[in-house]
Amino acid sequence: MFLQVLGHVLITSDLWQAALQFAALLLLPALGGVISERSGVVNIAMEGMMLIGAYAGVMVAVATHNILLGVLGAMIAGGLLALVHAIVSINFMANQTVSGIAINIAALGLTNFLLPIQTNGQGITALDSSLRLPQAALGPLAHIPFIGPVLFQQNILFYVVVLIVILLHFLLFRTNIGLRIRAVGEHPQAADTAGVNVRLVRYLCVVSSGLLSGLAGAFLSLGIAGIFNQDMTAGQGYIALAAMIFGKYTPFGAAGACIVFGLGEALSPRLQDTGISANLLSTLPYLLTLVALVGLVGRTMAPAADGVPYEPAAE
Amino acid sequence: MQESTVVTQRPASSSLYAVEMREIYKAWPGVVASDHVNLRVRKGEIHALVGENGAGKSTLMNILYGLVTPDSGEVLINDRVVHIAGPRDAIRLGIGMVHQHFMLIPPLTVAENIVLGNEPGGLVSGYQRRRANEEIKALSERYGLPIDPNVLVEKLSVGQQQRVEILKMLYRGADILVMDEPTGVLTPQETDDLFAVLRDLVKQGKTVIFITHKLREVLAVTDTITVLRRGKNVGELITRETNQREIARAMVGRDVLLRVEKEPARPGAVVVQVKNLQAQSDRDLAVLHGINFEVHAGEILGIAGVEGNGQTELVEVLAGMRKATGGQITLTEVKDGVAGPAKDITNIGASNARIAGVAHIPEDRRESGLVITESIVDNSILGRHHWREFSRNSIILRLKQIASWANKLITEFDVRTPSAVAAMRTLSGGNQQKLIIARELGSNPIFLIAAQPTRGVDIGAIEFIHRQLIAQRDAGKAVLLISAELDEIRSLSDRIAVMYEGQIVDIVSPEATEEELGCLMTGSSIVNEV
Q1: Residue B217 sits in the same domain as residue B277
Q2: Parallel, antiparallel, or unpaired: how do β-strands B324-335 and B338-344 relate?
Q3: Between A and B, how many residue pairs show a Cβ–Cβ distance under 8 A?
Q4: ipTM of the complex
């Protein structure tokens, strides 16, 4: 019975479309994590940056009646929160994991606190379609059977994410800037003595992770949901974190991991006819995360100086 | 004499000194690292900067390279006063530095390491691999430093890595090359190669500052010597007019016994027998491929080898800190010349190994020898805290007994400290090491493992430590000495086992020449060609 339903569900384009959409959503903060950790700053605050981005995106879009400004607002909000993380961990050399947790809790508290104040206790009602990120079908490509709906009838941000993955891979592994980022994450002292500005590189990378996570927040609130709810990220920033590790700190690796997790998320609502508890099924992506981390990945090699604050005149 | 040299060497129109540091003062909380130091390095010479650990050599060079900001004093490069705020400024002024611990990034290629921070095409450009490789090839041909630019640095030997470091400086157009203890990790042959390269670089107009504490090398390769002691410049010497004794006296401030005096060994029965010992590294790769040796009562067996050939792992296995994956270690107590029953101590753990009579002076005293933030008293019973004289039922410490034990160690081993409750980290490296040795010998072991016992220790303390090791030998203990310093191995050992890639390639007498040992250390057997 279960396997029959599963087999049937697995060949529907509807499932794969949803899976890839989830994957794209997860991938943005995962890429944020990749760029931050490649530069040597542990960042587990994508959850909080995403949430604040989702919130800011909706508030700005509603206030200005402009979807683009909404997206921009989301990115800036995420970037500002990341800047806090950067200052705390780069300048003050605080524990980066603790800083990340603090930011996640602060973001949750802040959005819960601001939402009723800014909406006079009403909360946000569903957004008007003009304020939502549209679905975009890519011309004739969209009509290819199965592949069309899966790949070419997606939200507009989906295509942006695909572009960002490729660009980030190119940036990290094919450019001089990428060489410097990797050097700083592996051996900051070596980079410093070679004339690379370690702090600047780390600042830029951490803030970029905030921009990407904020964009993911906009994708979630302005794109997929069309609304802002309290704690609407619900741990997806953490799944993105797992995807980053699962993907061995590479953009394409993270993309692969996000597709696996996206499939898990897309599957759980579609298997409810099988008689298995919906609550149990909704834990599927998280279980998958654990399995992936323990079984498939084992010890991944993080950048050597990941999480280690850099003190120039040590000794 | 010095005056006339100065006059004759002055080039027609350019400046005389490549580097001049005037009245450099730098204090850290509690220490004056550089006390109004003057340093003058002539253009086109190899200038040695010598001194004991903590004499202020590294501080001075870090100031020159912009890694440390001096409290006062000025730096002149080619007679111009300059302000060096960071490595970027230093590089711009033509200063290059090869640090004691290489500043290389293992998972990147040779070319990526060399061009980093100065990549062809500028910052906003793709990484131009071909151009980088071509530029490196041109450099390596010009200076006779062959290297494959596409290899990952982690695949290179230490000597090759150093070559990459030198190329890195040359790529940046450095004219003043600072080499911080460059020979510490090299084999004798690699050291000779390095010296040839340095002489060649000077011929091509470069200036070299060579930081070291190995006096033989100073005499072999440098032109002028500046000696630092406790943050002060205590003298400038001209290499060809001086000798080891004079330099050592300037470094330490008194006459030093450079040679170890010892009676011939009177080895007894076998105390330690190691058979076909195998073990894995932290990365689960096999590092010990069947080690065999024995150590007799009353002898020092030295283990020579380039670092990273399994010595660290061997010591850890013997001390019970790492699991052997195969083979056997047995320990036999010899009392009054009579051997007792052999005890199997393979994989019994560090605590049981100590109980069985193994004492261990670890190679990294901060990592595994001491708890650096705690007091001397606490550190004096590390690993022995459960002994009956130090605790009741291994639970409640007997503080009075422990304190008197610590004070006894301090007096007997001349550990210089304001008090027994001072934190370990407030002591100098030499005194920290003395306490470890005091503690390890205080347990009256059967078998003493001394790994890099004089690393980072000043000459005076080295003398003391060497005497202690000899005394242990003469008291009939089995001593295993592991050291990266070939001189130390040769002067102390009664037999020398050479380790290469996880195996003992040969066991030779201490009369073996440095060249012979060097050959063995690089895996080739002794050839009688030269």
Answers
A1: no
A2: antiparallel
A3: 80
A4: 0.88
pLDDT at position A296 is 62
Answer whether residue B17 is part of any domain.
Answer: no
Which pLDDT score is estimated for B525? Answer: 60
Confidence of residue B233 (pLDDT cuts 50, 70, 90): very high
Other CB atoms within 10 A of residue B4 CB: 8
What distances in angstroms separate CA A274 from CA A17, B223, B277, one per listed residue? 21, 86, 58
**Confidence class for position A10, pLDDT limits 50, 70, 90:** confident
> Which of B108, B117, B118 lies closest to A182 in CB terms?
B108
What CATH number does residue B186 fall under?
Answer: 3.40.50.300
As a dihedral over the C-alpha atoms of residue A243, residue A244, residue A249, residue A252, rounded to 10 degrees, the angle is 60
pLDDT at A3: 80
Rounded to whole angstroms, the Cα distance separating B211 from B213 reads 7
Residue B18 belongs to some domain of the structure: no
Taking the CA of residue A195 and the nearest CA in chain B, the distance in Å comes to 5
Say whether both B154 and B216 belong to one domain.
Answer: yes
Contacts 24+ apart (CB under 8 A), A267-276: A267/A6, A267/A9, A267/A15, A267/A19, A270/A9, A270/A12, A270/A15, A271/A2, A271/A5, A271/A6, A271/A9, A273/A5, A274/A1, A274/A2, A274/A5, A274/A6, A275/A1, A276/A2
- The verdict on residue B73 lying in a domain is no
Q: How many CB atoms lie within 10 A of CB B283?
A: 7
Asked if B359 and B429 sit in the same domain, the reply is yes
How many domains are there within chain B?
2
Using CB atoms, which residue from B108, B116, B121 is nearest to A196?
B116
Provide the shortest C-alpha distance from residue B119 to chain A (in Å): 6
B301 with B222, same domain: the answer is: no
Is there a single domain that holds both residue B233 and residue B279? no
If asked whether residues B196 and B344 sit together in one domain, one would say: no
Query: Is the Cβ pair B103, A186 closer than 8 Å?
Result: no
Sort A273 into a burial class: Cβ within 10 Å, 0-12 / 13-18 / 19+: exposed
Query: What class, spelled out in words, does domain A2-297 have in CATH?
Result: mainly alpha
Segments forming the whole domain that contains residue B460: 270-521
Asked whether the beta carbons of residue A190 and residue B62 sit closer than 8 angstroms, the reply is no
State yes or no: pLDDT of A298 exceeds 90.
no
Q: Are residues B248 and B367 in the same domain?
A: no
pLDDT per residue as tens digits for the range A119-172: 888 878 888 888 899 999 888 998 999 888 889 999 999 999 999 999 999 999
In a domain, B87, yes or no: no
Residue identified by tokens 């780069």 is A90
pLDDT single digits (tens) A15-73 = 999 999 999 999 999 999 999 999 999 999 999 999 999 999 999 999 999 999 999 99
Q: Using alpha carbons only, give the angle B379, B383, B387 rounded to the nearest 5 degrees.
A: 105
Alpha-carbon gap, residue B50 to B444, rounded angstroms: 37
Do residues B160 and B189 lie in contact, with contact meaning Cβ atoms separated by under 8 Å? no
- Domain-wise residue ranges, chain A: 2-297
Residues B240 and B280 in one domain: no
> Of A200, A257, A236, whose CA–CA distance to A53 is shortest?
A236
Of the candidates A183, A189, A304, the beta carbon closest to that of B116 is on: A183
Angle at B54 between CA B20 and CA B165, to 5 degrees: 65
